[in-house]
Design a protein that fits this description.
This protein has 231 residues and is α+β, with helices and mostly antiparallel strands.
Length: 231
Amino acid sequence: MLGAYRRGIIPFPAADEHFRTINEFRYEDQVAQGTIGLVGSGRDDPYWVAWWSPDPRPVIGVGQVHLGRNLRRQLRRGDEWTTANARFSRVAEECRAGREPRWLTDSLLRALIELHREGWAHSIEVWLDGDLIGGAMGIGIGRVISGDSLFSRHPGAAGIAVADMAARLSLAGGLLIDAQWDSPFLRSLGAAPMPRESYLPLLGLSADRIALPPQPLPARRLGAADRGTHE
């Protein structure tokens, strides 16, 4: 997995036999033609895990996160706090709760937890009155975090998690968050497409682990920083 992330490749396991069969139906001709390469030995079933390298990549520069007016107003009035790497396993469980298909399978979850223990996988937690209301997680490669998933249990919590990840990544000397898959929500936060040929060299700038500042910080600081950038 770590070797794949270092090359801009992300895994999407099939949740069950049904989704494995869908992968085979969609891609077997291209696999047979060699258009799609295989990962692993020839004895492995290639359709249980699809490995993707999207082109272009939606990326968010550490100084380019945009929080809407309503969320900035919420931050000025609210008491949300954020942490980093305080509850990785819990954030991961929340990210996969109630989602179908469950791409974050048990085996992938175990691998991510192991990468977290080794200092490669990171989580951001958003707290309100002692409750975990949102979060995000991803793999840090050099100066980039590849954002795997996020969740929200409170209005705006997912946006706060992304903004906090970018702010802490900036403090650690990072450049951007790879949002992996484009969506209107990510565009609203400032994600913009980057060609794969421009993205991949960024992964080679450093092979070091990223050390995100872990301490609790008030989320209201994020609204002030964003206001200074966009207004």
